[in-house]
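REQUEST ID: PR-0412
SUBMITTED BY: lab tech R.K.
PRIORITY: routine
TASK: structure prediction, single protein chain
INPUT:
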Amino acid sequence: MKIMITGSSGRLGRELKNVFPSAIAPTHKKLDITSYKEVYDFINAVRPDKIIHAAALTSIRECEKNKEKAWNINVEGTKNLVKATKSIDPKIKFIYISTACVFSGEEGTYTESDLPNPKNYYAVTKLVGEFIIRELEDWLIIRTNFVPKEPWPYPGAFVDRFGTYLFADDVANAIKEVIEADLSEIVHITGDKKMSMFELAKKVSPDIKPMTLKEYTGPPLTVDMSLDTIKWKKYKIT
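STATUS: complete
OUTPUT:
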């Protein structure tokens, strides 16, 4: 089975390369997904059986600040991959890595059948990508919520923002299981416990300071990103 991974230098992409060591995982320099010609030529040359599309601009602030860049990477890049896949071999399995942020974050505990309602521009672009890949014959949308297992990058973490978080290596291993099970359509990869972002941050940075959303200034954030699943199993954060 020949697997191609986009976004291999990202937080999840690095873990996916560990899980799929023989995968074709081009860097951004080798494959600019915003160029249809580059995408077509690359896929045509490697002829993968499966594509895991993990490349995205994920910073909520940056997506709000530079909407054109966010649209170009997250939407046009996805369009290019889908168009090339349809043209070269429609039977290629296309796995699209999406986010819990496609939901409003008002209710929480979202399942695969719940209706998305994005709250910020990043989430809008990811939801549009979900619709684009449905043009393909064989597609899988994986929604998840993760951080890398490394020191927390900020001095504080929210005590009043919640999710069913996992670490990136947990998610990469779960993606491998879902692919091996040959699931299709929408699957949520989720932790088995709802926790605050502060609880999550303490796992990697014990001295992290608590903060609240009242102290935050910036684009709208989802408050409760917790996921549930009716399609798959839940995972313990490790």
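NOTES: DSSP finds seven helices and eleven strands in the chain.
REVIEWED BY: pending
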